[in-house]
Automatic annotation (TrEMBL):
Listed Gene3D superfamilies: Potassium Channel Kv1.1, Chain A
PANTHER family noted in UniProt: GH08630P (PTHR14499:SF136), POTASSIUM CHANNEL TETRAMERIZATION DOMAIN-CONTAINING (PTHR14499)
UniProt protein name: BTB domain-containing protein
SUPFAM superfamilies, alphabetized: POZ domain
Record GO biological process: protein homooligomerization
BTB domain boundaries: 9-77
Lineage start: Eukaryota, Sar, Stramenopiles, Ochrophyta, Bacillariophyta
């Protein structure tokens, strides 16, 4: 006899000749539905080895499962939304049809645009941070340019003290994150007095 503890976590379904393996939790998600009742009756009878046969359209059942898993579904253009609605009714699923969309329709496009916006914001922040680090390196180079030998760091004794300079920032360093730039300059021994879109004013901090 099958008990609650021994019920399998995965159920096999044969829908119109198409085999599916579905978690029990997914099928029981819609209480009172034909699917929830069907698997419950099967376990009561103790017959859990053979797939449960359902004489319906196997291809449309895929979209029924998608809805049960995510509470929304995107249909390809080849699938009629009314046909899917009939499947919901057959299985006793009270589906919110406002969450059943054409895959390439307005709702899907809106969600794609929102994902793009989030990605672009993240990319913008990363670029601004990278530009700030690059700008701090350039500022250090320009600040002591008159003392530099190529590829050789400026010796500490040659650095003027408490000297202020306003340095133009090339376009390739824009946009930049001001707080990151301030932190990077502090680590390089500078105090940032002001930073605008195309320049930064810094002074060499006392040692």
């Amino acid at each position: 006899m099958t008990t609650e503890e021994t019920k399998p976590k995965v159920v096999q379904l044969d829908v119109g000749g198409t085999l599916y393996k579905v978690s029990r939790d997914t099928l029981e998600r819609c209480e009172g539905s034909m699917l929830a009742s069907l698997i419950s009756d099967q376990w009561k009878e103790g017959n859990t080895d053979e797939p449960i046969f359902i004489d319906r359209n196997g291809r449309l059942f895929e979209h029924v499962l998608d809805y049960l898993r995510a509470s929304k579904v995107y249909l390809p253009s080849t699938v009629n939304i009314e046909a899917v609605k009939e499947e919901f009714e057959f299985y006793g699923i009270d589906a919110d049809m406002s969450e059943v969309h054409e895959k390439y329709g307005h709702k899907y496009l809106h969600e794609l645009n929102e994902r793009i916006r989030v990605q672009e914001e993240s990319l913008y922040a990363l670029k601004a941070e990278a530009h700030a680090i690059q700008a701090s390196m350039m500022v250090e180079h320009e600040f002591f340019k008159e003392h530099e030998t190529p590829y050789i760091p400026v010796p500490e004794e040659y650095r003027p003290k408490r000297h202020t300079r306003c340095i133009d920032l090339p376009e390739e360093y824009r946009p930049f994150d001001k707080e990151t730039l301030r932190t990077c300059l502090q680590q390089r021994g500078f105090k940032m007095n002001r930073a605008d879109r195309d320049y930064v004013s810094v002074e060499d901090m006392e040692s």
